[in-house]
Records
---
Amino acid sequence: MTFLDVRDLRVHFPTDDGLVRSVDGLSYRLERGKTLGIVGESGSGKSVSSLAVLGLHKRARISGEIWLDGEELVGADEEHVRGLRGKKMAMIFQDPLSAMHPYYTVGQQIVEAYRIHHRVSKAVARKHAIEMLDRVGIPQPNSRVDDYPHQFSGGMRQRAMIAMALSCDPELLIADEPTTALDVTVQAQILDLIRDLQREFGSAVVIITHDLGVVAELADDILVMYGGRCVENGPSTEIFDNPQHPYTWGLLGSMPRLDRERSERLMPIKGTPPSLINVPSGCAFHPRCAYAELVGGACGYEVPQLREVGGGHQVACHLSQEQRHRVWHTEIEPN
Ligand code: SF4
Ligand code: MG
């Protein structure tokens, strides 16, 4: 049985301007001990889809299926799903300051999170909080446990939030842009930390990011989202070594790399992400795609379906295998 099995998930928000189709038919699977990177620009539906897994949308119309460890979460009792949050699944946000309460010490917040699911004394929970702070690399956790969030640096706060999320040993950890606000060195440390903890705890991890570089080292599988849908997914090595979708080419091109040559040759992605109220017809990427003309029309009216291209790698694009191969070898990686 797959640990997390998301099937044809749709998350729509009714608004005065119309229906916002934030997620429109998303499917993926994730096993324990594995990491999935969900990648896309802001507004692609990556955060919304994960908040749906956690049961955190109040005003949304949600359809499809979300199976967590054999249990269907779509339509499940709210109280029950709340019980699963923290204990079975937890989330790390981009901005710990907004996720942590300013008036309580870091220690009090970890203690609270822990005691929701564990019947232990405050003293025992506090000891656990200190252990967790130590575990995520906070120096002198015995004294830092009584600090307030604002007394921590950005990187330390992020570590504290990871401690809070992991204090109940969740089987599913969702990290939404966990390092976006941090400088490059701290970013690398936090990513290492997530990887170490994942190995130690054996959790399933979803990392949401707009930056493919963040998941390059970390993810076993990568799912690329555009306009609320998956446009490409597969093993990480496939996505980096054999990318098939023009949007993924663009994301790779806008990624800072050590071998700058390739990114200099690649075109940055022109234009802006689509409106989720009026998603372009056909392939949602077509107004921005430099290759639609090779296909001759279909891109503008026919939604491309995900098709397997080998090795567990799927792509939703009307270009033929041969056309993609030619573009790749003539324009993107000639030689
Ligand atoms: Fe570009 Fe057409 Fe492929 Fe969409 S389906 S990515 S518009 S070539
Ligand atoms: Mg987001």
---
Amino acid sequence: MWLPCGCTSKYVASSFARRTLASYLHVSGRSRCNVAAFMPEAAGLEGVSGRAALRELSVSNSESFWAAVARHRLCWSTPFHTVQDCDLSRGKIKWFEGGKLNVSVNCLDRHVHTCPERVALIWERDERGSEMKYTYGELLEMTCRLGNLLRRHGVKRGDCVTIYMPTCPLAVASMLACARIGAAHNVVFAGFSADALAERIRDGEMLLLIITVNQGVRGGKVTELKKTVDTAMQSCPTVKQVFVAMRTDNPVTMTARDIAMEEVREQKANQILEIQIQAVEDVVCEPAVMNSEDVLFLLYTSGSTGKPKGLVHTQAGYLLYAALTHRYVFSYHDGDVFGCVADIGWITGHSYVVYGPLANGATTVLFESTPIYPDPGRYWDMVERLKINQFYGAPTAIRLLLKYGDQWVNKYDRSTLKTLGSVGEPINTEAWEWYHRVVGDGRCPVVDTWWQTETGGICIAPRPSDPDAEIVPGMAMRPFFGINPVLMDTEGEVLTSNNTSGALCMAQPWPGMARTIHNNHQRFIDTYFQPYPGYFFTGDGAYRSEEGYYQITGRLDDVINVSGHRIGTAEIEDVVCPAVAESAVVGYTHSIKGQGVYAFVVLKKGIDVQEADLSRQLNGMVSEKIAKYASPDFIQFAKRLPKTRSGKIMRRVLRKVVESDLEGLGDLSTLDDPAAVQEIIQGHEKLL
Ligand code: WT7
């Protein structure tokens, strides 16, 4: 019999049977060498002296490096026989073949084995001051009950489960329960509309099941998540079951398809005091033995053309990369409280709220609220209350908080903070300096981390190997272990010198990279490997300084980044297109959001409509079909759009117009009718 200590969970760890899995807990022999103190996983590598040499070796002899790290960092039930089998020219990426393991065992059982009372999750609920803690023992129990529940309803290894939930312990347990029984998960950000949810469910014909909550609560506002699921279900006939958990006490209409995930254990005067995942489920759930390259999850992200793509990440390589980057980029140490405020609906939530921290046995924070609810001191109040050691957030929030002033930060004790992280978009110098000087009291390094849904984990960051290394504000700086970035010129040649800019590519595979696009390997090849054959193309541009440091300069394609949310301009154009004759969407610089959405539209002929009415209608359509954040900030009505003689819209010109950079309009000689540009410029000036 095991009981949790000092936790405020509503889930009672009743009879957690300590049937841990000794066979999984085998860690191969560790010998010591001089890098061992810094990176014990590299201890088996002969003849490496110092961090620089280790970083060098991680690229020059990446197989030895990753083999040593994988053996040390993960618990395998069967060791791998082949470190890697990759061919970037064909988009073939395989790591650790022959190896068998279970991701949930790596994230839970092995820590329960050594310290069951350690807190795994702190759920910073929307209601300030009502946080709840869950130990590793409790999280394992929740995961096992859920795993059994899913199994009992027919979910098998290889199936895929959609999770449409806000960031909360049940969402984490659902992800881990899928991993436990060998099903893939597809987490859809709970801010996405019914249409966007339905599209992501339909894309994979094997998606049978959905897990959701009755209502979401964020920033004091209730969102009707179950109702959104009901709407989405109208166009998803393959979905057989919907599991519904209760985030609020308000009942929702349940249909024959819906199954309550929890049951009420104690209730007084209509108030639910305690609920538990269906108690009939056993707290022991035999983990599926998975192959390294079996699918762990799909995650949809926007591209420059067409529909969002379901990137596929697999078991061992992804977990290893998330764990290793979590440990070294943030200088995480055992016992630290790691506070990544991202939503689990994005890759940042997957890698640095769930998998990386849990694989490392960390205490990870689940942030359900917003930076300004109930006031702009929310983050720092949380840092004080939860004693957060590493804080990882987005520049858009930092810019917003900066505007509210230092007093909201200074009110709270931030002495526990050791590292501050930034992710998702470039961080401008003003925000970087405020973050460093005010939030971190000038004491904490700010790590600006560059990566993508495709890369699985952080690829470029200031201090991957040296906690004392120099950091230049606003620069992502140095490649992580095993990462080999190159810059390409427009001819597709590698730029070898420093102080130069080009297209950012990766010359070598690494274990965390995505393996394919669900149901569309050809699109995977075309998007990432065909532009620069033999290299992985990131879609971003970068500058490499004289010292060899990297700075990300932004997307090279038609993807924009609104408050750290990636969106293809083509997706927005597709939504507005039925209501207008033609449209072109571009990003423009926005002081808080990083980029905002600016739409040019040409009205259908003969249609008599007030521009204000149509603007409202178009905004509504985008919110409904995609999400609120994608809704245009500006809609400019135009008689025509500037086009080349072959009829292509000249987006480059539109981008310059919205940035009011008329000097930079560039070569207009291919323009079909120069007067179109003048009209666009005048229309833009009127709108401002
Ligand atoms: C795109 C990836 C990384 C996880 C969250 C977003 C941009 C990301 C940075 C950074 C400049 C950045 C890039 C990238 N981006 N981090 N530190 N500096 N730009 O993941 O939704 O897949 O978006 O976000 O343009 O390609 P994502």
---
Amino acid sequence: QVKKPVVISTWNHGIAANEAAWEVLAEGGSALDAVEAGVRVTEADPEVRTVGYGGRPDRDGYVTLDACIMDEQQQGGSVGALQHIMHPISVARKVKEDSPHVMLVGDGALDFALDQGFEKKNLLTDQSKKDWEQWKKDAEYKPEVNIENHDTIGLLALDSNGNLSGACTTSGMAWKMHGRIGDSPLIGSGLFVDNEVGAASGTGVGEEIIRVCGSHLVVENMRRGDSPEQACKNTVERIVANKDSLENIQVGFIAINKQGQVGGYSIQQGFNYAVHDETDNQLIDSKHLI
Ligand code: SD4
């Protein structure tokens, strides 16, 4: 028995994003439209300091955004280090649909967005500017577990036709080097969708996710028979396998399979995800390795 529709997304802000995605799904809309609508809520919220508008800047004071989207036909679109655009996920979708490419970065991505009619905006809020000025006093790059760096939104949906799509969007690690791109816009790292099997998304220290192609690995684990939770756990174990110290490294994954089963797993305690199904929209504390 397939459970559908279902939406799963990362962290507390997933609740509000799920609501918006659910509105699309409840009317029989596509998973692709749902995932885009969902994460746009998070991108526009200045209180979410890790995604879109109001996100913390890089060490030079620039808010640079990473996002990708993937549909049920395994077509992806992505933007990296995009500045001045409120909804990078929608630009990523345009890259998928209206360009011959999968990924655009930096000024080229901005030019494309402006050509497509997106409006140029200042995304650096007063609060994020203040935080940056405070950070500059010591200028140390020390990501802390579950704090300020790890709240990328990844959102996966299974629609009433049984199709899967996913979206992932972030301002990346606060105080990153200018030009740094994380896992979130990389198809296979921050997000992967295979409509035959399932979908996955990652959050946390992007450098750790990239080196194992994390979301792709989660989906491949499901292909070999793992449950969504087990697939996430195995991927987390691959990440920690070569690490001397796990201090200050958080990585979490969420996953959904074709049956509408969902799960998540993280390295450290503190990761949670939101699941919306026919009965409820609830936050679940992820199981974790340590
Ligand atoms: C990154 N995975 O850029 C993202 C970080 C994250 O909120 O999850 N941020 O590495």
---
Amino acid sequence: CLMREDTPLLAGKTVTITAGPTREALDPVRFISNHSSGKMGFSLACAAKALGAKVNLISGPVNLTTPSEVNRFDVESAQQMHDAAMELAVNSDVFIGCAAVADYKATTTANNKIKKQGDTMTIELSKNPDIIASVAALEENRPFTVGFAAETNDVANYAKGKLKNKNLDMICANDVSDSSIGFNSENNAMTLFWPEGERHLSLQSKQQISHLILKEIASKLAAKK
Ligand code: CTP
Ligand code: CA
């Protein structure tokens, strides 16, 4: 964590963040996943800590060290991430869904290694729970809920659609058609959307951009009171 902030804008607040990919098992040795590195979520955890928050980081399988003084919860599947998120969200002031959650899992997971058979094979998939939408739908103890949207096209419209449909307070949208930003990169550029406005954050390190996102969240949280 590089950023050090003099004003602890999130002192006394609890921030829960999901990060990294999820893994959906097909059998004991195979899974469906994605290329998320977890860097953005871990950067957000650092930034929240630097602003004085108590930080819970729910992480899928990643190769990153836990930022100091951050409570890390390791999970594999989307269902496990969902269960951890629902438990922690009700005691959080802010929930940030930065994980690249697998949208689908195998309908059935084989107990034994699946054997090679014909020239084609079909795997039936079933939809995973939408973690951030479940958090945002909480009727009691609902945290300020922030989503991410990685899009390759029509970025602003898809992001605004997710903001509305998932009932989020803010969404951070980035264009992943440009490989210099997002997923495995050290840098990122994005636009934050909330119901009444938007703010563009120019290309900079994930650490710097995380700091700006958390400061924006802190000011919105303060304004809500
Ligand atoms: N998300 C989630 N649970 C899921 C899928 C997504 O919590 N099962 C969250 C992500 O962490 C992110 C936001 O929802 O904060 C948007 O994720 P994204 O994949 O862009 O949206 P989807 O609703 O899955 O739509 P699609 O993949 O079709 O664009
Ligand atoms: Ca998705």
